[in-house]
Every structure is written in structure tokens, then in C-alpha cells.
Amino acid sequence: MINRLKSKLSKDANLKELLTGSAITFVLKITGMTLGYVVIYLISRKNGAEGVGYYSLINQLLLLLGVIATLGMNVSVLRYVGQYNNATDAPQMRNLYARILSMVIPVSIVLGLLVFLSSEQIALYVFKNINYTQAIEITGIALPFFALNRIGVEFIRGLKKLKISEFIRSVLRPLIVAICLIIYWSAKIPNVYIIYFFVLGVVINSFFSNGAIWMYLLKIESPKKRLLSRIELLTVSTPMMVTAISSTLMAAVSLFMIEYFTTTDKVGIYGVAFRISQLIAIVLVVVNTIAAPKFSELFWAKKTEELQKVIRQSAKMMFWAALFLSIAVIIASKWVLGIFGDDFASGQLTLIVLVIGQLINAATGSVGLFLNMSGNQKVLRNTALISLALQCIIAVILIPLMGILGAAIASTVAGSLWNLMCILYVSKRLKLKTYYFPLVN
After folding, report:
1. Which of 369, 430, 87 is nearest to 243 (CA)?
2. What is the DSSP letter of 431?
3. Chain-centre distance for alpha carbon 213
4. Rg, the chain, Cα only
5. Is 264 exposed, middle or buried (0-12, 13-18, 19+ CB in 10 A)?
6. What pLDDT, on a 0 to 100 scale, did the predictor assign at position 88?
7. What's the CA gap between 289 and 310, in Å, rounded?
8. Which of 116, 123, 188, 428 keeps 20 to 30 A from 140, CA to CA?
9. What pTM was estimated for this model as a whole?
10. Three-state DSSP class for residue 3
11. Are 71 and 103 in contact, with CB atoms under 8 Å apart?
């Protein structure tokens, strides 16, 4: 068995890269997720479900603002770095990085300032809770650092420096927050202190990620001719930004609406259930980390047969790993939620619905990522907007009636529809299959 696997890997360089890269990324991702759960556990024990809700909501707000501030370039940078990552075009990466910074830095500063100045209005009219005002102000200050970190991490990922990118993305920030919480464990702290710890992690991450890029780019000569203009970069990135905003809102809208229609402690319970369901998504994230630059490389090199093979291999890995994890989480759902406190056990059915949604997501493979990497970002944008609209409609109807369970149903239905529309498009128009369903395949 082992000899057969070695023989197969020696003949298939793409599979070898996918498996070895996934193993490294998996360890770092698991470490980061474990630290994330430690952070939530510490918050739940120190400040209760309300503290978790406060942290989760501000986390999602910063993520949404970060998507807007980066103008979709944290996604397009993956495509271009994958495209330029060769001996001939490598100098163009200096041009790419300079172009991105010249647009992201001013946009993130202006947007952050607007958020800072309108913090009270956002707290009052969006969340119906004036207690969020100070945390929203901090979010505005942190936004430029958060945007730069998102660009930096994806740039490093495109260079296939997976250990560095995944450590910065997954491990460093929750490690800093956990350390701060432990230091202040004996002191009674307000919820806003947790946001200070989070922002400290964001700032440190930003310096690490962009410092690593500078060290790499200094070794590359300046391009003799600049191939990529700001207009071209914006043309490619804008649809990706709309898609990213839509997908981020699909995660955030549930938290925002739960806060609006119910209470902050319910946001905390849903937030914990959502984070636990992300255990299933880890498979997708890990494989996508390796697959993204590979998709770009093979697609633009017109190596269709190799591309389909890599897509199928990655989809198969994701499905079986996600199925195993889904069954384990569903069986242990009540016990796992209870770890965070007695109040969280009421989210059991919510967690099960979210897990089902994540399993469907894994079964459809890296379809969204592939559409972005293959120049079909407008299709992904349109399907994302349709799904977001559907989720908002379902959430407005069900959350007042069913609470956090209604939010989970809205999220699962909308996410499944989005994936279905995408795999149908790729199958019919691009003649490729990104999904893996055992009975169908």
C-alpha cells in the first residue's frame, strides 16, 4: 500500500504538491483553530455568552470592512502571483505589490476614518446597542492594518510559502489574544478590552506579513516594463470584491440580524456553533490554500487534463475528510457546546444544521476558488449576490420566529444554492467537474 502510494506520488508531481502542502497547512490550520477555540473558551468563561457575542460581532464587522478596503485584491493577488511566479515574469510581482498598496492604503484609511466618526450611529441603528460604540471606533483604527495583512498573507500564499502564510493567517493572532486573556485572567475586564487584544494581534500580523514580502521582493530586480495597470487590476478585482463582500455578509448577516432581533448572548451562542461547524470547513480551507496557485498555474498554461485531475483529487480529499468530521461533530454536538458553558448547549440543533451546510460546501469542491482563478469572477459575483439576497429574505422571516436556528437554516440554504449554481456553470460552460458526490461520480 505504502509502496503504491510512493510510486503514484513519484509519477504525479501535482498530487505530491497537493498532499505534502496540505499536510503542512493542515497542522498549522489545526493549531490556529485550536487557539481560536481556546480564545472563545477563555472569553466564555471570563465574560460569558455576552462576551463571546460581543467579540464575534466585532470580528465579523472588521472582516466585512477589510473585504471592502482591499477592493478584492486579496483574491486577485493570488491569481497574478501564480501567473507571475516564474523566472521570466517574476519582476512583475514588484509592480503588482506597488500597484495594490497605492490603492489599498488610502482606501482603508478613509474607510477607517468614516467608521470611527460614525461609530455611535452604527452601534445605535445597525446593532441597536450603544455599548458597541467604543469597539467600532477601535475597528476603524485597526482597519488599515487589517487590510494590509489580508493582502500580505495572500501574496505569500501565492508564492507557495505556505508555512509562513498559514502561520501568520491562522496561528499568530489568536495566540496573541489568548496570551493577553491569560495575563488579565485574574482581573475583571469589560468586553471592549477583548477587542483591544484582537486589534493588537491584527497590527502584529500586518507587520509580519508585509515584512516577509519586502524581504522577498528585495531579491527580485525591478521590471523593465510594467505589464499590469491599475485599471486592469481594478477590472479583475472589483467583481472579486463584490463576491467577497457577499460571501462575508452571508456569514456576518446572521450575527447582525440575531443582534438586531434578539440579544447579544444569542449572538455568542450562534457564534460558537458557527465556529465549531468550521471544523468541517477546515478541509476546504487547507486544500484551497495549496490548490489556488495550482489552479491558476495550470489553467493559464492551458493544461486542461492536469487541471481536471487536480480538481478531482482535491474534491475527493475534501469530501471524505468532511464527511468523517461532520459525523463526529454531530454525534458529539451537545457535549462540545457544553464545554463553553451551560448556556451554549441550547445551540445543538443550530450546530447540526450548520454542519450539514458545511458538508455540502465541501462536496462541491473548490468551485468558487476555481472561478476566481480562471477569470470567471463575474459569474461568482452574480451567483453570490443571488444567494445573499435569498439568505437575507429567509433570515428576516425565520430569525424572529425561530431565533438562532432560523439563522442557521437561512445560512445553509443560501450557501447550498450558491455552490449548486457554480458547479452547474463550471460543468456546462467550462466542461470541468469540481464536485465529488460518490454515487454521482
Report:
1. 369
2. -
3. 21
4. 21
5. buried
6. 67
7. 13
8. 188
9. 0.77
10. helix
11. yes
Separation of alpha carbons 335 and 260, rounded Å: 29
Q: Is 323 left (phi over 0), alpha (psi -120 to 50) or beta?
A: alpha
* Cα 346 from Cα 211, distance rounded (Å): 44
Q: From CA 97, how far away is CA 131, in angstroms rounded? A: 39
Q: SS3 of 239, please?
A: helix
- pLDDT score for 350: 95
The dihedral region occupied by 436, where left means phi > 0, alpha psi between -120 and 50, and beta the remainder, is beta
Q: Note the pLDDT of residue 5.
A: 43
Nearest-angstrom CA–CA distance, 342 and 125:
31
- Cell 502584529 belongs to which residue? 204
Which of 138, 150, 154 minimizes the C-alpha distance to 199? Answer: 138
CB 79 within 8 A of CB 372: yes
Using the structure block, give the residue that is written with the C-alpha cell 448572548: 265
User: Cα angle at 87 between 82 and 92, to 5 degrees?
Assistant: 60
Question: Shortest CA distance to 181 belongs to which of 361, 27, 40?
Answer: 40
Cβ–Cβ under 8 Å, residues 42 and 181: yes
Residues of the chain whose pLDDT is less than 70?
1-23, 82, 85-89, 223-228, 285-297, 299-301, 373, 439-441
Are the CB atoms for 213 and 152 separated by under 8 Å?
A: yes
Looking at residue 239, its pLDDT comes to 77
Buried b (16+ CB within 10 A) or exposed e, 305-333: ebbbebbbbbbebbbebbbebbeebeeeb
> How far is CA 355 from its chain centroid?
17
Q: What is the pLDDT of residue 4?
A: 52
CB 38 within 8 A of CB 178: yes
Of 277, 287, 295, the residue nearest 26 (C-alpha): 287
The one-letter code for the residue type at 37 is Y
Question: Are 96 and 81 contacting, i.e. CB atoms less than 8 angstroms apart?
Answer: yes
Q: Nine-digit cell at 257? A: 440580524
Q: What is the pLDDT of residue 309?
A: 77
Q: How far apart are CA 339 and CA 337, in angstroms?
A: 5
Rounded Cα–Cα distance for residues 246 and 390 (Å):
11
Query: Whole-angstrom Cα distance, residue 130 to residue 126?
Result: 10
Q: Do residues 112 and 140 make contact, with C-beta atoms less than 8 angstroms apart?
A: yes
Residue linked to cell 477589510: 66
DSSP character string of 323-367 = HHHHHHHHHTHHHHHHTT-GGGGGGHHHHHHHHHHHHHHHHT-SH
- Give the separation between CA 274 and CA 276, rounded to whole angstroms: 5
Q: What does the H/E/C string look like for 82-115?
A: HHHCCCCCCCHHHHHHHHHHHHHHHHHHHHHHHH
Domains of the chain, residue spans: 2-429
